[in-house]
User: Which sequence fits this backbone?
């Protein structure tokens, strides 16, 4: 984690790996594509600002970011963690990055964990959880990031209705599964 939470990282207008991975899913995601893509851009920027990443860590965050909610569209479900993990594992296998599977699997599977995740082997898991939390909370939960930086990232990659769409998807799930309203949350 960063020692100086006041420092921020530059906002990258275009992240080639993110564009490459998500671009292959554009038709599958359909009208929600710009919403999801902006969400991924916001959360990876928040992760980069929370942790001083080397190139490998950046790549892991970008890959996990692209796949973390993708099961919503690829499997048409709001119980999307396992399908999202499966998609990420397939990508890692195809790109000969199997050694990253345990960490990226945990990053995706625990990104909605309510409590902090402690694992000295994989510090990116907690960074990833916090990066998503900053975005899902619309910046209300800052995880130590400066308010001005959060605003700058949100201005550059607008919400475009992403949170509204999540509420719609969650409502549809809840109406069909009232006893399991939010299957993606973990204690």
Assistant:
């Amino acid at each position: 984690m960063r020692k100086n939470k006041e420092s921020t990282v530059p906002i990258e207008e275009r992240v080639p790996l993110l564009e490459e991975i998500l671009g292959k899913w554009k038709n599958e995601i359909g009208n929600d594509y710009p919403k999801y893509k902006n969400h991924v851009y916001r959360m990876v920027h928040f992760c980069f600002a929370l942790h001083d990443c080397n190139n490998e860590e950046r790549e892991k965050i970008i890959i996990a970011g692209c796949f973390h909610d993708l099961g919503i569209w690829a499997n048409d479900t709001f119980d999307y963690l396992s399908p999202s993990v499966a998609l990420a594992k397939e990508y890692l296998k195809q790109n000969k990055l199997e050694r990253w599977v345990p960490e990226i699997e945990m990053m995706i599977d625990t990104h909605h964990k309510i409590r902090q995740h402690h694992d000295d082997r994989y510090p990116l898991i907690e960074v990833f959880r916090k990066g998503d939390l900053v975005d899902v909370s619309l910046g209300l939960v800052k995880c130590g990031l400066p308010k001005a930086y959060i605003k700058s990232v949100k201005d550059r990659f607008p919400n475009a209705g992403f949170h509204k769409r999540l509420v719609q998807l969650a409502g549809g799930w809840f109406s069909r599964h009232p006893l399991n309203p939010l299957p993606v949350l973990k204690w």
Confidence is low (pLDDT under 50) at residues 1-5.
